Amino acid sequence: MRKILKSGLILLPAFVFLTGVIGQQVGEVSVILNKPVAEVQPTMWGVFFEDINFAADGGIYAELVKNRSFEFTYPLTGWRQDRDNGRGRLVPSFYSPARPSNPHYVSVVVDPGKGTFGLINEGFRGMGIKKDNQYNFSVFAKLTSGSGLKMNIELLDQNGDVIGGTMIEGFSGSWKKFDTAFTATRTESRATLRLVITGKGTIDIDMVSLFPSDTWKDRTGGLRKDIVEMIAALKPGFVRFPGGCIVEGRTIENRYQWKNTVGPVEERSMIINRWNMEMRNRQAPDYFQSFGLGFYEYFLLSEDIGAEPLPILNCGMSCQYNAAEVVPLDELDPYIQDALDLIEFANGAPTTRWGGLRASMGHPGPFNLKYVGIGNEQWDEQYIERYREFEKVLNQKHPEIRIVSGSGPSASGVYFDYAWAELKKLNPALIDEHYYMPPEWFQSNASRYDNYDRKGIKVFAGEYAAHGKDAEAPESRNTWLSALSEAAFMTGLERNAEVVHMASYAPLLAHIDAWQWRPDLIWFDNLKTFGTPNYYVQKMFSTHRGTNVIPVLQSGKPLAGADSLYASGTIEKNSSGVYIKLINTSSKVKPVLLNITGASLEKTGEISVLRAGGLYDYNSASDPEHIFPSTDSLALTGGKLNLKLEPHSANVVILKYKRLK
Ligand code: AHR
């Protein structure tokens, strides 16, 4: 009669629990399939992408060369001379205004005598190189003196041994792009790229680039496949981009301007990344934004993975924690125009100015943009009066676009209340709420949305994460406690899907050697990517989203933390799926009898369980699946299911109904 499943979950017939054989109170939970209470929006579970923690350059954007166009504040950042008895020098040069968006290049003056001279790029904390993989190299070059110069391109391992390379020649007196490719002979996580120039003369170089060929969808100059695959596996309903505080900039000058991120990559003007010096203990002076990953690529990524694009735009304010600059109201027009032009870029016909640019970049059809966010974590009157100006114009010119407004940086308080009160007088479709709070907050706030106005403005839980104690290893703040607490909270989001139309954990990505902020959803190094426990919690909800919320009740009430149990459920009308999430935050086994009514059910189902040895366990680069879901089969009798929920576990019961009664 007793079956011990792989997961450690023990299934017993109902009477065993009901007679209290093991001395625990059985909780009877009613699940009513034919009384859906709300729709779940396809956008319910999404992702928040921000270029923080080297998420873009050095991360998902697969370029391996750092400072490829010599535009960093110090033009030779990331580069060093390399000589082997040769003579030469690197001269950073400037040719503005001929190419105002990318004015710097480097002159390599070579007089090698018997040796060699060249330059080495260190990559983003090294370059991740895979044996037998093809690498695509390109460079813009011009010969300014001498003749017959050659450029040897070499990948070096950490010992300085060559692990792949090729050669280019045929330089002339005018700028020309050279492309070549070669195969790596070894795997190396911290390779460098050496360009050795032979001959005598001077060669100017710019836009030195190296990409793996196995990018996402094999696109030239594309995205890191392993990282995109991790994101795509979440089946996100939306991609919010480009942040976060990066939208605001520390100063207005440093704000994110989408128009600088589209068109040919060599013409995109890079800027310093605002996260470079933001965190005193995690400074990264070599953190810039090349915008190789720009708005076109964000739209394409969203389309690729079936997610709604959700761009957030600067509202004429820089970060209020930093310079707190505001654009006078009578000078706001260009900012509003940026929003209008963005809609044209995404949705306009190829015959329009911005739609034409999109078409010229390879996407003649529209991206079907439906949402635009105005401002990130802005607060107080200054925000509302600027937001109002955007709304006025957008509602008039683009009533089809749903506007997302902000409510400041906190989950409650004066600014939060003020924003909600004022925004209720306006017309946003969604209000973005942010909460980075301790795990206990998440557990005790699972009912947060139970009393929100069902007919009011919808909620976008745009940035949230449980922030617990810190420890040494970068990924160690992504504890099981934090993930379990988020799971408990997310049952409240799901139960209130009538109010909450979008939710995203933040931030999404972090480089293990170059992070500024933690915890994060997905960690990666130069070669590998892995999901945190929080990632698997997100995945548990997002891949079992369903189309309608169903009542999951104990004594007629939602399970929202009483006796450390949390639950929510959905049905998927298209596939007849039933997804019941059950979270046990206690240290004890919880016997639960699910009494499922309202439909006849298939006799078998599954349960997917996430648990850990301890609350402070986490997934690491060396043990990436330490906390990982396991799935077991379930057998049902007459709509009843006895479960014994493991201590500190997040569970989803997956069933199929035959017909709703
Ligand atoms: O997610 C990291 C940062 O947290 C975001 O940039 C900002 O919006 C919030 O303060």
In words, what does this structure look like?
It is a single chain. The chain is α+β, with helices and mostly antiparallel strands and 661 residues long. Among the domains are: 3-42 and 549-660, Golgi alpha-mannosidase II (Immunoglobulin-like, Sandwich), CATH 2.60.40; 79-212, Jelly Rolls. Strands 6, 7, 8, 9, 10, 11, 12, 13 and 14 form a nine-stranded antiparallel β-sheet that branches. Strands 4, 27, 30, 31, 33, 34, 35 and 37 form an eight-stranded antiparallel β-sheet that branches. The two termini are 31 Å apart. The relative contact order is 0.14. The model is unreliable at 1-23 (pLDDT under 50). The structure holds alpha-L-arabinofuranose (AHR).
Topology:
Layout: E1 3-4, E2 10-11, H1 14-18, E3 27-32, E4 38-39, E5 47-48, E6 79-84, E7 88-94, E8 104-110, E9 116-121, E10 127-129, E11 134-156, E12 162-169, E13 176-183, E14 188-212, H2 225-232, E15 238-241, H3 245-248, E16 271-272, E17 288-289, H4 295-304, E18 308-313, H5 333-347, H6 353-360, E19 371-374, H7 380-397, E20 402-406, H8 414-423, E21 430-437, H9 439-444, E22 458-466, H10 480-495, E23 500-505, E24 509-511, E25 522-524, E26 529-531, H11 533-542, E27 548-550, E28 552-554, E29 557-558, E30 565-572, E31 577-584, E32 590-597, E33 599-601, E34 604-610, E35 630-635, E36 640-645, E37 649-660
Parallel strand pairs: 3-32, 5-15, 15-18, 18-19, 19-20, 20-21, 21-22, 22-23, 24-25
Antiparallel strand pairs: 1-2, 3-28, 4-27, 6-9, 7-8, 8-14, 9-14, 10-14, 11-12, 11-13, 11-14, 16-17, 25-26, 27-30, 28-29, 30-31, 31-37, 32-36, 33-37, 34-35, 34-37
The protein binds alpha-L-arabinofuranose.
